[in-house]
Amino acid sequence: MTKTIPHLVNRFVIDTDDTFDDLRQRFESLVPTIDFAELTVVIESGDLSRVRQYTAEHAPNSFVNFWTFDPTPMMALVGHRTRAITYMVGNNVIAETMFRHDPGVMLYAPLRTAIYEDNAGGVHLSIDQPSSRFASFADPRITEVGSVLDTKLAALLRLLGVPVPLELEETRRDLTHSKGADMKDTQIHAQYSTGLSRQNIEQALIAAGKDLDHLQPADLGLLEDFHTMGRIATSELVDLVGITSEHEVLDAGSGIGGTARYIADRCGCTVTAVDLTQEYCETACWLNRLVGLDKQITVRRADVTALPFADATFQVVFSQHVQMNVADKASVYREARRVMVGGGRLAMWDIVSGEGGELDFPLPWADEPGLSHLAKSERLRATVESSGFAIEHWNDRTEQAGAIMQTVLTLPPGLLGLHAFVPDFAEKAKNLTNALTDGRLRVIQGVAEAIVR
Ligand SMILES: C[S@@+](CC[C@H](N)C(=O)[O-])C[C@H]1O[C@@H](n2cnc3c(N)ncnc32)[C@H](O)[C@@H]1O
Q1: DSSP assignment of 8-31
Q2: How close is the Cα of 254 to the center of ligand 1, in Å?
């Protein structure tokens, strides 16, 4: 049976101020042409991580060019004076995340792109909106990848210095403000998922000379703590809370798993790591295996406001830089208290709102204000207390954090850092550091004991 699927596609025709040659040259340097024969050899090696690494290395801005077709000589033969060049741009690793749901997506992956002159001398870049093509498969998982491609295309157009169509900006807003049962999942996915965290980290580790077959937990220390002051903050909090090898520890909102690995390695205990971002959970599992901590650490995709664990399971609950994404803070600490034994400890490292002035976005936990849910320090403390905890330490570390972050920003970025997997990290870190320095944001280190009921 033949199916006919009518669907609506947004074709962007972006007017530019460039010359044809300049635009073409910039596009080709931002979207390098991949050596298809070489890629084929890598694929035929059967080593998926090598393929991911190869793709990441050749797609500095998420896309590579698989094919170029220059129709100009043929058109000139007939007397046309305008020039055009067409490309097929995409990313084989991202394409697979749609292919797994429907191989038919290959009709539109890679994306056809054209740069051309018109008769009046204007130069245009034209491409279809990825999500409008991929939505035609009527599979939300494919549509979601299409939306992620929209955001990546927007980033590429920004780098090219050409106008970004409103529809691409709207995709991010829709992802960030979508309503309904899966609103939180979608928002967090839009904020944190790139589809590339594992391959970008792998590439950074290899570039830094690490041997992935003999990786030690300490090798990851510079890139795995996704919070203010990085490893310094994690180690201080572990000192403060006191963890033994007998403890069962939960890391609530574990990101790519840096805190869980640090605790498991340093304290010799078992750790359960939960996070809402599926991609981060997968990257965490892979890193745990690489450093040989996968037997000590269990990773689960879960929401910190509805934890999938029995009452009184853990002696310690850690949570660093997660509640800023959660509006209903009481549910975070109520759940932490429920899964903790009486006398257990909650360890927190969190951003709260300070005084004066609007915040500048993006911030490390929120590209836009809609995803940032900040409370005042006293309010957060009261919420923790009313959830069944007695505060033992409540330290405002804003000054120290601002000073350390300022120093870090003056250093040239190394190969290993959060920029390896967090998009626009330099800008996010600068906005955070400025706000910590002038007091619009504050950072709190807290330890609280679960009151015995
Ligand atoms: C800034 S990162 C911090 C990650 C980690 N705690 C660390 O310090 O490296 C925030 C993390 O919180 C997770 N997150 C946000 N809301 C969540 C929720 N309701 N349940 C579970 N994880 C959540 C995000 O997926 C993201 O990985």
Answers
A1: ---EEEEEESS-HHHHHHHHHHHS
A2: 6
